[in-house]
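User: Is it possible to get a 3D structure for a protein together with its bound compound? The compound here is adenosine-5'-diphosphate. I've pasted both below.
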Amino acid sequence: MLETVELGKTFKGKTAVDGASIYLEEGEAVGLLGPNGAGKSTMISMIASLLKPTFGDVRLNGQSVLKNPAMIRRTLGVVPQEIALYAELSAYENLKFFGRIYGLKGKLLETKMQEVLEMVGLRERQKELIRTFSGGMKRRINIAAALLHDPKLVIMDEPTVGIDPQSRNHILDTVRLLNREKGTTVLYTSHYMEEVEQLCSRVYIMDHGQIIASGTHNELGRILSGEDTLYVKMSAPSPGFVHELKSLESVRQAEETGDGVKLIVAKQTNILSEVVGTADRHKVQILNLHVHSPSLEDVFLHLTGRKLRD
Amino acid sequence: MGIFFRKDFLTYWRDRKELLIAILMPLVLIFVMSFALPNWFGNETPSIHMKIGFVVEDDAASGIAAFKESLGGSGRTEGEIAALAAAADDLNPVLLLRGLLDSEEFRGIAEVVETDAAAALGQLENGKWTAIVTIPAGYTQSGLGGMLLGQEETVPLRITAEETSMELDVLRDVLGDYYRSLNFSMAIDTVTKASGFVPTGGVDTALAPIGGIEQVEGFRVITSSQYFTLSMSVLFSMFMAMTTATKAMTEKREHVFQRILLSGARPVQYVAGKAMSTFCMTMLQAVIAFLVCHFVLNLFPGESLSFWLGVSALVTVYCIGMAGLATIFTSVTFRLKEDSASGLMMIVVMVFGTLGGGFVPVYVLPDWMRGIGEWTPNGMALAAYTDWIQQGIVPDLYKSTVLLLIFSVAAIIVGIAMFPRKGRI
Ligand SMILES: Nc1ncnc2c1ncn2[C@@H]1O[C@H](COP(=O)(O)OP(=O)(O)O)[C@@H](O)[C@H]1O
Ligand SMILES: [Mg+2]
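Assistant: Yes, that's possible. Here is the predicted structure of the complex:
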């Protein structure tokens, strides 16, 4: 349905997006994952033809969007990273305005407005001014405004940044509803791993303007196929114990967590007995020990040597 | 465009604080200044004094005789002819004018020297005199024909000046009022060197009828409260245009504008909405200022409907001009960084405001500044208002209205043309 071909953007000599190619099949929910500054928003602006690419192309159903930007307007709904609403107008007035500039009017507009308000769970509060809403409620209206014209493809740019858990769950539910029940194609941008893991069947990982990995959750996990993550929880902190763990041959990385240590270890080693043996020598009592299959967070850490949220 | 207009209007409306400031501030300033400086332009103490030459080229006696002669043979009865002849002796136009020029009231503003044409022109060119009032040959007969028989006057009174000036305005007003007070139509031609000694239009006193000789007025110098109402109103309209651009800045900063672009709406619609909402807001602001001041300060007592229509026309075209200024400002905010755009707008409004007489009366400014000030939108409007209020010359009103309208429409077009094209925002 949507495809970017070696898409790139340079701002005054600084490359924000560097030859990124992604594609979305109809009905898919795809995640675009990357830390702040990775180039996600720039990429979305180019797809929405708000920004002219320095090089590369964006194609919708095989046709170049650059040559015919009007084509993508009807199909596409963009939820911007920022709250792009009139603070001094009510939720209702905002939706009415944005609906009308999409050419909706009369009964149809009213029906659509009530539908999206219902979807984001703010129907009762539609008469209130955006200014008086909480961050999460604003985000929900921000999403609703992008759905009025029934877009076939919805792009969401970090729709859950800095909001309360209730609103966040609501938003995740909305995305699921859109994708699974209405068959809308979704490109979901985030730097929260859990969300992308929950919502998306496929993921692109972006860093420094480049797509550094892509695939289904399992495929990405296989990047780490030679490794496991091991969480060790101890009764009391013991620097000596941790230090010795780090020196073990099969331990590739070790990181102290609040009440224990997280180890990235090579697969198929008798690591468990080594850990237990080391604990014995240091008189450390292990409360809990479990092996975790790799998360996207781990994939990112592996690929870039950095954590996502820094 | 209607969609955008409604949205803009609504955002103005919601911003009560800003709206109140925009409407109350000019009122407060007008009241304060009118009470603090009531005699700045006061009627009672006109700070005007000029020297004028008085040239009589007409022989009144033979003019009256010629008039009497022309009465015969037109089917009038003996009695009618006798009455008209007697009236002609009483209403000798040259004597009437001398009476005015000799009056104490007139001597308060001007010193009159009677001389011949050549000498008078010499003094005028030296810059010693403000103007020459000439009674051309044939004036008596023509004037009597006008007064007594309602004939068209073929020989108007002539005022000659080197350049337009406030003094000249006053002179013209006084003479115009005088004839008006006599309740008959008497044409006056004003010629200035600037216009190449071509008459610039007569005072058509028939358009502003004032009945009765007892209504002899003072000089129609603009009052302070009138001046402040006009100058504050035009100044604050410019601030309103700036507010529009500031709101556009917010739309850009908060990415609402991006969302508008996403819908496929054309930037032109967006800018046109800005123009329209600015027009409405400035109209609202101006109408409130004029009406409140009129009723509180008794701004324009006893003015006619046509006077008010003229004022309305000027308010309307000026507000269209402010819509133009707002579109230019909006485009500037989209082309520059926020700080630079705000700074630039502030400078423009302050400079226009100063040169156009928004902060101090234009008469205080040096000539070169006044010259530039006449080309600022507010200065242009202020001049048009004062001309209309002082002189009430309809063709002049048309001229200034059309001129303002041309500038206003041009500003809107420039503003829209300056708006960045899609993909460059
Ligand atoms: N208009 C711009 N001018 C200059 N640099 C920009 C502009 N927009 C984005 N950038 C830069 O491009 C990079 C990518 O930004 P962005 O796409 O916003 O990342 P993300 O959305 O993944 O956080 C950042 O380094 C940012 O500073
Ligand atoms: Mg971003």
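The CA atoms of residues 333 and 340 of chain B lie 8 Å apart. Confidence is low (pLDDT under 50) at residues 42-46, 193-219 of chain B.
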